[in-house]
Design goal:
α1 packs across α3 (50-63) and α2 crosses α3. Helices cover 72% and strands 0% of the residues. The chain has 5 helices and no strands.
């Protein structure tokens, strides 16, 4: 995911401080979005999914110190994914 985030942010250089900051942003974003989306525990963040695209967008906002605007701009995406996992949970409980 680190390389995908670097591509999203157009970061073409590699240094320890930048990589450390990006990894910290990724870990915080994963925790935050797991809560917002109601993801199952142990969720695997694969690339090229709706979840990972939202993750990278959250990281973009965090990188640019604008995370306070994320929820308003991505409310529909958050709601869609949350509903997806609520339905899955419901179906699993019923079977």
């Amino acid at each position: 995911m680190l390389q995908a985030l670097k591509d999203k942010l157009a970061i073409t250089w590699s240094d320890t401080d930048t990589d450390r900051r990006l990894n910290a942003i990724l870990e915080t974003a994963k925790t935050t979005l797991a809560f917002k989306l109601g993801l199952p525990s142990g969720f695997i963040w694969n690339t090229n999914t709706q979840e990972s695209n939202l993750l990278l967008n959250y990281c973009f906002y965090e990188w640019n110190d604008a995370v306070d605007e994320f929820d308003d701009n991505y409310a529909n995406d958050i709601l869609q994914l949350r509903m997806k996992y609520e339905v899955r949970d419901y179906v699993e409980q019923e079977t």
